[in-house]
Design goal:
The protein contains 9 helices and 3 strands. It is mainly α and 325 residues long. It has a 3-stranded antiparallel beta sheet, with no helix packed on it. Helix 4 crosses helix 6. It is flat, with a radius of gyration of 22 Å.
């Protein structure tokens, strides 16, 4: 089997693994008593990660350069990063909701790359002179891993909003999965409730002005975990994004004689940086937790996609792939 056939087999195998993995995670959420399904889902994510690593390695051997120079390669690199960050986040949280949130995104990326892209965009081609630089690996790989971390962290914030059913909840406490004291505020128009949940064995109390929708202790614990893990994963992705932007500026000066030219990609990278900088500033300086930073991270999810894919496909600039324009 030649390397091209191997690559075709590996991208199909990745899709074939991720599809049942997604079904395992979703079934595990719908039927919590099926204890084996989350472990099967984790194994599926790990296998998909290895398949994509092998695909990128074969691509590297075939082309002779780091495989991240076109849309097909970058999509698979992003999906590889997503599955890797997923395994980390799942280890931190211990929640099957992580896989339920991330597996559809990984599957969608792989399906788009393997079955939707035109054939000419999937083929390895010689690098243009501007890309024949060691900065290609440094800048693009760091940016893609940062995108993966930010996307996973944002998806966990979306999961937090789903678990809390849209209630305005502010969590007090920073530990993950320790059952430490937390205070929860729920606000619905003129209705107001304050519930205090203490560590296991000490009981719980609640003071209500009016009856409102309350979350079960298990949901509060899960929401607390999702909030903290989302913060930690975004905290991993943000410095990588910063390093990637700096490396890109140095490379741009080397290739084009200017550190910053306000190319659409550069502009949206700056917007992405500002959104997640605001998120971390709110978490660290203002002590925000719960719904408000989760909404900000959810906005960041869309901004990352515009930065990564939107301006490359729809815009005109130095980073465009030129599919539509």
């Amino acid at each position: 089997m030649n390397l091209v056939s191997l690559q075709n087999s590996l991208d199909n195998a990745t899709f074939a693994v991720l599809l049942p993995t997604l079904l395992c995670y979703w079934t595990a959420v719908a039927f919590p008593n099926l204890k084996a399904l989350p472990a099967i889902g984790t194994a599926g994510m790990a296998i998909a990660n290895l398949c994509m690593a092998a695909l990128l390695g074969a691509r590297w051997i075939e082309a002779g350069y780091f495989p991240i120079s076109n849309l097909y390669e970058s999509l698979f690199f992003l999906a590889w990063g997503l599955t890797a960050v997923h395994l980390l986040a799942e280890k931190l949280s211990g929640s099957r909701l992580v896989g339920a949130a991330t597996s559809p995104l990984a599957l969608g990326i792989v399906a788009f790359a393997a079955f939707t892209l035109p054939t000419d965009m999937r083929q390895a081609e010689p690098l243009v002179p501007a890309l024949k630089s060691n900065w290609l690996m440094m800048h693009v790989s760091v940016m893609m891993v940062s995108y993966a971390a930010l996307l996973v962290g944002s998806l966990l914030s979306v999961a937090f909003l789903v678990v809390t059913r849209g209630q305005a909840i502010e969590l007090r406490g920073s530990s993950v999965g320790t059952g430490s004291f937390r205070q929860v505020k729920l606000n619905r128009a003129s209705e107001f409730a304050i519930a205090s949940a203490e560590s296991a064995g000490t009981g719980s109390t609640a003071v209500l002005d009016k009856p409102v929708l309350q979350l079960a202790p298990e949901q509060l614990s899960l929401a607390d975990t999702l909030d903290n893990v989302s913060y930690r994963v975004i905290g991993l992705g943000f410095p990588l994004l910063t390093i990637g932007i700096i490396a890109g500026a140095v490379w741009a000066n080397e290739a084009w004689g200017s550190y910053w030219s306000w190319d659409p990609k550069e502009t949206w990278a700056l917007i992405t940086w500002l959104v997640f900088a605001a998120y971390l500033h709110a978490r660290i300086t203002r002590g925000w937790q719960g719904r408000r930073p989760a909404i900000l991270a959810t906005i960041g999810f869309g901004v990352v996609w515009v930065c990564y894919l939107g301006v490359n496909l729809l815009g005109k600039g130095l980073h465009s792939y030129g599919w539509f324009f």
